[in-house]
Design goal:
Number of strands: 17
Number of helices: 3
Structural class: mainly beta
Order of helices and strands: HEEEEEEEEEEEEEEHEEEH
Shape: rod-shaped
Strand content: over 45%
Radius of gyration: 27 Å
Number of domains: 2
Distance between the termini: 70 Å
Largest sheet: 10 strands, antiparallel
């Protein structure tokens, strides 16, 4: 192997090692207790041993299943485990960790949290058009209605559509830990226009959140709220199921 490719390979290995190290939560079992929360994908246990002692590590998931177990034999001095993977299940993973030294357990709970999501696409629930766009069908005589603002299968906010005399105004309320970065509201009064919402050849009514859109003579309209959001996924509710019957019925009323 020539010198340059070897040096390049060495640099790549060092970079990979640094990236992995940044994803490891190091827990000092001599002082840690209770619950440790982390967004890291791995946990490493450390402790100081008093002379030669037998050491083993066991990890259980929230259902009590053993996900990791290793007997380290007899060790002395500073002990460091290997990097133990913490797999996510749903919005988080909760694990019970035991470091056993000479038959005595040191235990704690490790909660694997999800990292904050940034610059993610979001839209309201409603009637799906094609594979990628979901519109919220709004009865313009209803006065007001609401729809969940969803991103990544989680409810990040609520959109209230206020209607009056053929006009529509959308207002957004975000969940705790969620931020609305940008949003555009598109509204169409017929199916042909609804199929082109937000496209280059669309001539539908559009505007910002809080801006009133006018749809003269329309009884119902299809609304696409195209948003970008950032949010902390931990603790957020799953996206609610859509009221497909009501939404489909309103879609059938669209010319």
């Amino acid at each position: 192997m020539t010198r340059k490719p070897f040096l390049l390979l060495l640099v790549l290995l060092l970079l990979c090692g640094t990236a992995l190290a940044a994803d490891v939560e190091i827990v000092d079992m001599d002082s840690a207790s209770g619950t440790v929360s982390t967004t890291c994908g791995y946990v490493r246990l450390t402790c100081t041993l008093a002379g030669e002692q037998s050491v083993s590590v066991t990890v259980w998931d929230a259902e009590g299943r053993v996900t990791y177990q290793r007997d380290h034999g007899t060790r002395s001095g500073a002990f460091r485990s290997e990097d133990i993977p913490l797999k996510k299940r749903g919005s988080e993973g909760s694990y019970r960790v035991a470091l056993t030294v000479d038959g005595s357990d040191r235990t704690l709970t490790v909660r694997r949290l999800l990292s904050r999501v940034t610059h993610a696409d979001a839209s309201t629930t409603g009637h799906r058009i094609g594979k990628s766009v979901t519109v919220t069908m709004v009865d313009l005589s209803a006065g007001s209605c609401q729809a969940a603002l969803v991103s990544g299968g989680l409810k990040v906010g609520t959109v209230t559509f206020q209607t009056r005399g053929g006009s529509l105004t959308a207002r957004v309320s975000m969940e705790d830990g969620a931020t609305l970065e940008s949003a555009t509201v598109y509204a169409a009064a017929d199916r042909s226009e609804a199929s082109r919402l937000g496209g280059k050849h669309s001539s539908c009514a559009s505007g910002a959140v809080g801006e009133t859109l006018t749809l003269d003579g329309a009884e119902v309209c299809a609304v696409w709220l195209r948003a970008t959001v950032s949010f902390d996924p931990n603790g957020l509710e799953a996206a609610p199921s859509e009221d497909s019957d009501t939404q489909d019925a309103l879609w059938q009323r669209l010319p």
